[in-house]
Automatic annotation (TrEMBL):
Its cofactor is Mg(2+). InterPro entries: PRTase-like, PRTase_dom, UPRT, UPRTase/APRTase. GO terms for molecular function: GTP binding; uracil phosphoribosyltransferase activity. It holds the Pfam family UPRTase. It catalyses: UMP + diphosphate = 5-phospho-alpha-D-ribose 1-diphosphate + uracil. GO terms for cellular component: cytoplasm. PANTHER family: ADENINE PHOSPHORIBOSYLTRANSFERASE, URACIL PHOSPHORIBOSYLTRANSFERASE, CHLOROPLASTIC. This is Uracil phosphoribosyltransferase.
Length: 216
């Protein structure tokens, strides 16, 4: 069986609403952050559906024994925001995964070549290979940043099949690159926009997600 990247664009009115707020250039930074938090929440809700490991057991209700399923506390969960913009989705993601460990990684793109480089890496030297990883990266434009981060994760023992990417705007070049390099991956995004301009920005997109989040 050949693996293929799976990309989900959940058709949810709340996701569409907060995407519209985030796209609007008139949205001030404080509201943009709220929109990103909400997008982080609802996209994470969708992304962890078949990702969170559970254990089947039994509980006693006041009336009778009953089959029950809990989140398995033995399987490590990791949330990885890609700095800076990935932080904008964190609050919403963390609200749903309060026990997940958070590992930061900072990646900056060279403005001319668009080549990514890692300027901060708080990953452990090895992850438990069972770790479920949720990456928050609002803009999947050229695919350079996300493939760099995936390389850092897989060389530390992460299985791409256990990774979910939560994004807000994805573009075809990034998705094609991921499909070639990490075909087992699953991406959840609010939208797929067609174009990436020669500066590496998605069009129409929502502009610079880091600048709009932090008001810079
Ligand atoms: N990063 C952003 O913040 N916006 C884009 O459109 C592309 C990359």
């Amino acid at each position: 069986m050949t693996l293929q990247l799976r990309v989900y664009v959940p058709p949810h009115p709340l996701i569409k609403h907060w995407l519209a707020v985030a796209r609007d250039q008139a949205t001030p930074s404080v509201l943009f952050r709220s929109a990103m938090t909400e997008l982080g929440r609802w996209l994470t809700y969708e992304a962890i559906r078949e990702w969170l490991p559970t254990i089947d057991t039994q509980v006693n209700t006041p009336l009778a024994p009953c089959a029950a399923s809990f989140i398995n506390p033995e399987v490590p969960l990791a949330v990885i925001p890609i700095l800076r913009a990935g932080l904008a989705l964190m609050e919403g993601a963390q609200a749903l995964l309060p026990l997940a460990s958070v590992y930061h990684i900072g990646v900056v793109r060279n403005e001319e070549t668009l080549e990514p480089s890692v300027y901060l890496n708080k990953f452990p030297s090895q992850f438990d290979p069972q770790t479920r990883v949720l990456i928050t990266e609002p803009m999947l434009a050229t695919g350079g940043t996300i493939t760099t981060v995936m390389g850092e994760l897989t060389q530390r023992g992460i299985d791409p099949a256990f990774v979910r990417i939560v994004s807000v705007v994805a573009s075809p070049p990034a998705l094609q690159k991921l499909n070639v390099t990490y075909p087992g991956l699953v991406v959840y995004t609010a939208t797929i926009d067609e174009t990436v301009n020669d500066k590496g920005y998605i069009v129409p997109g929502l502009g610079d997600a880091g600048d709009r989040t932090f008001g810079t």
